[in-house]
Amino acid sequence: MIKRITLNFVHILLFVSLICNGCSLQDNRYLLGSSEAAETTTEEDAQAAALVKKFAHPISGDSRDYDPLLKMIGDARFVLLGEATHGTHEFYRERAAITRRLIEEKGFDAVVLEADWTDAYRVNEFVRGASKDQTAEQSLAGFTRFPQWMWRNTDFRDLVTSIRSYNNSGKPNASRAGIYGMDLYGLSESADAVIEYLKRIDPNAGKQAAQRYSCFDGFRDALEQYGFIVSGDEKKSCEKQASEQFQEMERRFNAWLNNTNRGRDEDLFSAYQNARVVKNGEAYYRLSYKRNFSTWNLRDTHMAETLQALAEYLDALGGKKSKVVVWAHNTHQGDARMTEMGETGELNVGHLMRQANDGDSVLVGFTTYMGEVTAASEWGEKGEKMRVRPALAGSYASLFHETGVPNFLLIFRGNERLIKELAHTRLERAIGVVYKPETERQSHYFKARMSKQFDAVIHFDATSAVKPLD
């Protein structure tokens, strides 16, 4: 959820003193270069629109629309599918179509969501046939935190149903795909899951985990308050306890990795990941009140760590290398170094995955010119169908609209002419779970170089709102 991007644009620029886990923001070929950051002219826009139209692959609804994309993906292990909003039907529908093909034709065995681990894990148990839930809709009942419509919607429900059916199909050499979350907001639920797991396999260890996590007592549903209190009194921090419990779960997981006779142990890996959520979630809330610290960077680093850890676990099961498709907002999936936020030091999942798996990751963005979206007027309020204003002049969506091609796939990777032509900085729109049309430019636009931010982009000129289940 891009709560940050829906605030005043000035807030984005406050993240100037950031963490990067030792990575360099200055030595990569994807870096946004100031010499290429000039605004475009009307003539340049006309040339760019003509070139985009020339290379655009129209999307008609045919099952083979994404053949060029799958060909470009090749044997890549990580495919990151973005979205320009958190509530557009076409984005969910098309990501689902691409995901099904990746699972069925290229053997992808994990779908990872911009969602909390515990909520998504309930869906994972359903699609893998290890759940008491009888329907896909029942398995989505864990998504109770705002914004519920982000995963409790008809498009995602239908994808869950189809993955369950595929897993049960018994097709020869078929990969059994799982569904996982990579966010860190669900600290309390993850702590409960660690305790429950340990009590089941090692009661003494479960008792110790409960004692460590009791540090959070009183803040279960008020973790922002925990962060505020700890910012004024570090002695009340739970950092030590959360780190110790994570280290214990890491030792247990490493022991499993080193066991030559190991078998699949989804429960162990889930507990290990839940301990990671508690450790990084504690840091997120504790440091959120620290001046000049980027919780955005901490959150996206956690997401990237989760993807790498999941791949390591699936690889350890033997057989073929794991393949992971990721669903999150464009602001997480596109390489941040090619945006103005990246110039201030902001990183994201796309940046980190390219850095760790260069050539083995594919970043796909989505855009729209106008239409409708399910969003809220303020954080925490009920989602509603809202009209999306036509994209601003000088934006990528406006440029794509000028091609006259309503829906299309545009592949940048390997097309140096297209990459160069779109090298000038343009505006890119980002609508999260909150939409503020009255402050459209300040709240929802940033500058980027999309031809290097993504490997491909999918554009739908007029879009409709995703349909919530509730």
Number of helices: 20
What composes the largest sheet?
Answer: 9 strands, mixed
Range of helix content: 40-55%
Name of the CATH first level of the largest domain: Alpha Beta
| Second-tier CATH architecture of the largest domain | 3-Layer(aba) Sandwich
When the domains are counted, the total is 2
Low-confidence stretches: 2-38
Explained architecture:
Strand 6 (361-375) and strand 7 form a beta hairpin. The chain has 470 residues and is α/β, with parallel strands linked by helices. Helix 8 (187-201) packs antiparallel against helix 9 (203-213) and helix 8 (187-201) runs antiparallel to helix 12. The relative contact order is 0.21. It has helices at residues 9-12, 42-55, 67-73, 89-106, 117-127, 136-139, 154-167, 187-201, 203-213, 223-232, 239-257, 266-287, 295-316, 330-333, 340-343, 349-356, 396-401, 416-421, 440-444, 450-453, and strands at 57-58, 78-81, 110-116, 178-183, 324-327, 361-375, 384-388, 407-411, 426-429, 445-448, 456-463. The strands form two sheets. Strands 1, 2, 3, 4, 5, 6, 7, 8 and 11 form a nine-stranded mixed β-sheet that branches. The protein folds into two domains: 4-183 and 298-463, EreA/ChaN-like  fold, CATH 3.40.1660.10; 185-290, no CATH class. The radius of gyration is 22 Å and the shape is globular. It contains 20 helices and eleven strands.
Give a brief outline of the structure.
The protein is α/β, with parallel strands linked by helices. The chain is built from 20 helices and 11 strands.
